[in-house]
Amino acid sequence: MIFDFDASGIAPSMGGFEPLPAGDYNVVLSKANERQNRSGSGSHTELYFDVLEGPSKGRQVVDRLNLGNYDPNTKARAQARLSALCHAIGKLRIRGIMDLANIPLVITVTQREIKDSTSDPTGSRSPRLVNEVTNYKKAERPQGGNPPQKPAPSGNPNNMPWG
What is the average pLDDT score of the chain? Predict the structure, then answer.
């Protein structure tokens, strides 16, 4: 493949996939995928959230909901998490996950340590940190816009419907 590229105007990036610091992030749901689990006996839904502001603006956080799990308790926990997401966004009835897309909300992110699924040259599996979404909340204020304006006075100081 041959192409013309000028790196002089682009900041170099060698950043990896370090987890975000624990905290609350203003986000929107930008993408969702359904994936089969490793055993092939069920599926989970991957939710991709784009961070809207702050030092992590532009980064993504992925959450997974085991909505297609064969275990009824696991599925019920995933449905309760989806309900929390719906309540945070303000849409209680949806026909698909993408009905929740591009609506600002706040997610709480923590870090947790997992054993990496790949081994190092010695064959041992080293632990690594990953992000975990632990809460969905309503956005505090509109994203990318002006704060809500107070209604103009109507000339009706008591706000009575008859004038």
Answer: 82
